[in-house]
C-alpha cells in the first residue's frame, strides 16, 4: 500500500464511483435519460469519459472500461442525431441505440465493481499479511467494507478473486493470532461469518477442518460467541460434531458462570443452538457437565423467571385487551400479543424458563431420534428435581419442561 502507484487510488476511486452511480441511474431510468440529452446521468458519463482518459489509461485493468465509455459516447451521439426525425429509420435507430446504451451502461457498472473488488481485496490481503503494521483503524475499515460487499449477495467473479487471494486463510490466521487486537480478531470473525453467508458450500469445509471454532471459543467475547452461534445455525450438526469431538462443550458450558452478562447470554444462545442441532454425544456431554444445574440456577436469578407465569407480570389492561382479541376473532391477534409480550420479557430476563427452552430445542431439533428425545426429557426432569432448591421450584420447572417441550 506504500507503492507510489497507489497514490492515484483515491482519485481513481472517486471517478469510478461517480461513473458507477451515473451508469446505475441510466439503467434505472432509461427512457427519461435517453429522451433528455442534458440528463444528469448522461452528462456525468460523458464528462467523466473525457476526464477518465488520463486516469484510466494508467491502469491496464481499466482498459475495457475505457472502451465501454468510448462506445457509450458514440451511441449517445447517434441517438441524439436522430432526435426530432420522424422517419421509420430514425425510429428504429433510436430503439436500437436505447437498448445498446442500457447494455453498455450495465457493462460499465460491472467493470467498475470488478475494479473496486480487486482493489479492496488486494488492500485487505495486504494489511492481513502485515499484522504488525499498527493500522488498526484501517484494518477494521477494510474488514467492514469486505463484510458489506459480501452482504450484497453472491458474485462469481468476487468469489474467484477471494479464492485466488486466499482471503479465508488470512482471516483465520488473524482470528487465531493472539498478537492481533481483540477488535481486529472480532471483525475477522465477522468476515468469516459473512463468507459462510456468501456461499456456505464453498467455505464450510475450511471452517470444519480449521481452527476457527476453537479460536472463537478461546476469545470468549460476546461477539465471538455470536459468530459461533451463526456458524452452528449455518453448518448445523457437522459443526456441533466438531465442537464435541474437540472437547469444547465444557468450555461453552463454563461461559454460563462468566461475570460478563453478555457472555452468559450469548452462551445460552449457543447452548440452545447446540441443543437443536446436536446429536446424542453432544447432548450427553452437556448434561454430564452439569448443564441442567447451571440452568436452574440461572432461572432462579434476577435475570431468570418463569414464562409459564408470565401473566402475573402483565398489567390488567394488557390482559383484558388480549382476552377481547381472543374472544373476537381474535385467536391470531391474541397469539401475536402473547408472543410479543414474551419477547419483551425475555429481553429483560434472558434466562427465563431456560430449562424448558433447552428441552424444547431437544424436542423439536434435528439431531436426535425420537427415543433419544424421550430419554433426555426424562433425564432433564430428574436433574431438575436434584438441582431445585424447593419442591415448589421443581414443580414449576418440571411443569414447563413437560408442557413446553411438547410439539
UniProtKB/TrEMBL annotation:
SUPFAM superfamilies: ARM repeat. This is Uncharacterized protein LOC112490105. The lineage of its organism: Eukaryota, Viridiplantae, Streptophyta, Embryophyta, Tracheophyta. The gene is LOC112490105.
